[in-house]
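Entry 14. Ran structure prediction on the chain below.
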Amino acid sequence: MTPSPPAHLYVHTPFCAGKCAYCGFYSVAGHAAWHGPFIATAGRELAIAARGRARPLPRTIYFGGGTPGVLGAGGLQHLAAQLRAHADLSRVEEWTCELTPASASRDVLDALRKIGVNRVSLGVQTFNASVAQRLGRHDADIIACVQRARDAGFVNIGIDLIAGLPSVDDAQWRNDLNAALALELAHLSVYALSVEDGSTLQKWTTENRVRLEDDDVVMDRLRLAEEILGEAGFSRYEISNYARPGMECRHHLGVWRGEDFLGIGPAAVSRVDKNRWRNISDVERYIECDGHPERETETLDDLADACERAFTALRLREGWDVSASLQRFPVLAEYENHFVATLQLLTQHALVESVADRWRLTPR
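Output, structure tokens:
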């Protein structure tokens, strides 16, 4: 029997206009000459991944990065053409593209609409222009950017904010949240700042060039975000994500619900059946491999696979349905009493709660 195709397709675009100080994702600044070869190689990788399986039939597509917008309108159209050549896109419900405000030109936004993208996620991080520039973000009018997206026909628009950025005090953080609400968006991601290995921020902290807020301050700011956004009608449907009703990111929901996803591009991660792999984090070597990228691979046994797919549901506000997991993964049955006993113990510390036969994390 031919295995069913992954429900979700992710394309990692490893190019950026510049490297942000806090970023730990694999990306390269510049190298426009690699854009075309990267797009062609991504198409070949997708074609090869489909061999021996049903033709890819994704419900969601996600262009992430890096900054996909730096490919320009023509590059994005070429990338979409590669997907259409090697996958059946007739059932795509949600197609997201990440953009920085600086890369979200009218030409790029119009091209995205034409190829079928119906959701854009803008990496804003802070509305304080001086802080953003120091961190390596490129100056752009965020309000004008959101309006351009709306003029291009986008309704599902979201932005990212980071709590705990250097030089952002409590007043500025409150201003960031209120500025985001004023844009009347569909989705907001609110992340706690983390110091990633190899990032410029790590170097700055090691050299005592910046002072980071302590954990209690960052937690207070995350609580404030939940309070302000909740009062404005946003639901915290996942640890770091808020949405208006019905506007949750379907791609992320699918991954957290333990569904298969196929990643294309350098540093892209995939999870298909009991196999998972991560492509090499080197765009030049990725191109040289011509669709057969070097990878780190792992095959999970039945129990490890079931545990991972079941427990990621605890990231979601909807929580983990124990009985549904046991039906989906019979290998978990002998551990049911242990799981439930552990969760009941955690309720004594106000870390989890049971609601309508599901277990979920508390705001704490």
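DSSP finds 13 helices and 17 strands in the chain. Will compare against last week's run tomorrow.
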